[in-house]
Amino acid sequence: MNRNQVLPQVELSNDPKALSRIDFCAPQSYQGAGFLEISALPRVAEEASSIEPGDGFDWEVKTHFGNSPGSEPQQILELAVKGRIHLVCQGCLQDFGLDLTQDSRFVLVATEEEADAFPMEDDQLEPLVAIQHFDLLGLIEDEILLSMPLIPKHPEGACQPHASSFGEAGEAQDASEKPQNPFNILKNMKKN
Questions:
Q1: What's the confidence (pLDDT) of residue 149?
Q2: DSSP secondary structure string, 73-85?
Q3: pLDDT of 112-170, one tens digit each?
Q4: Helix boundaries (H) for the chain
Q5: Minimal CB count within 10 Å: which of 34, 65, 72, 76?
Q6: 106: number of CA atoms within 13 Å, CB side?
Q7: Cα–Cα distance, 69 to 31 (Å, whole number)
């Protein structure tokens, strides 16, 4: 490819079916943006505790060819995802809305071998194998899932402990309902 060549710009559709079949092998650049509801992202929907109106993710994708010294220009894919999902707080077991933002950059390579050989020191770019039927919707979903916390919680100080949380259930019981000491039972059995 000639470094001075102007490549056609393709506008991506917001249709989830169209996003699951993008030809990144074609000599062209892509751009697009839109909003995906949680229902269009099945793996993300499995993680959601509830789906409220307005829950979903805005996405924006741009590709361009970047110069790399001594070799052919590399196609760079920039993906930005921003949105809201409802999860269960692991501190108080209450439903809460979590705002997520994820910006990622990828370099598109031709083969798995090139992806494996990509320098690990480059933490700015992650390699992706470019194929004719690339699942961009799956990549958007992956980036959302990777940006979610392992243990979702309200911001510090915002949790209201649930009545059935540890420690409070035992304190709420009557003192007269304390379970018998198992050693007392054995002591009584020994007497008989």
A1: 92
A2: PEEEEEEEEEEEE
A3: 888 888 887 767 888 889 888 899 999 999 999 999 999 898 887 777 765 554 554 44
A4: 16-19, 42-47, 112-117, 136-147, 168-172, 182-191
A5: 72
A6: 19
A7: 25
